[in-house]
Design a protein that fits this description.
The chain has a six-stranded antiparallel sheet. A hairpin with a 2-residue loop joins strand 4 (51-55) and strand 5. With 73 residues, it is of the alpha+beta class. 18% of the residues lie in helices and 40% in strands. The radius of gyration is 11 Å and the shape is globular.
Length: 73
């Protein structure tokens, strides 16, 4: 199982599944990270947190802890 926080800069992946429950999972889905969505990792901060992504044509910054909940392929 590979999660979004393990992806290197410049790689494009597809969201397979969201882990977590309740409001956290809902917040991630509201940001556009849903099953089947293409996500490109643009930048990673020097200490690894946050991660900047390109999702559905816009840039999104995501905490490392939230990125661990997104399973990708």
């Amino acid at each position: 199982m590979k999660t979004l926080n393990q992806i290197a800069c410049g790689e494009t992946v597809t969201v397979l599944k969201l882990h977590g429950e309740g409001s956290i999972k809902r917040r991630i889905m509201d940001m556009g990270l849903t099953k089947g969505t293409q996500v490109m990792v643009r930048k990673v901060a020097p200490l690894g947190d946050p991660i900047e992504l390109n999702v559905r044509g816009y840039d999104l910054s995501l905490r490392k802890s939230d990125a661990k909940m997104v399973e990708v392929d």
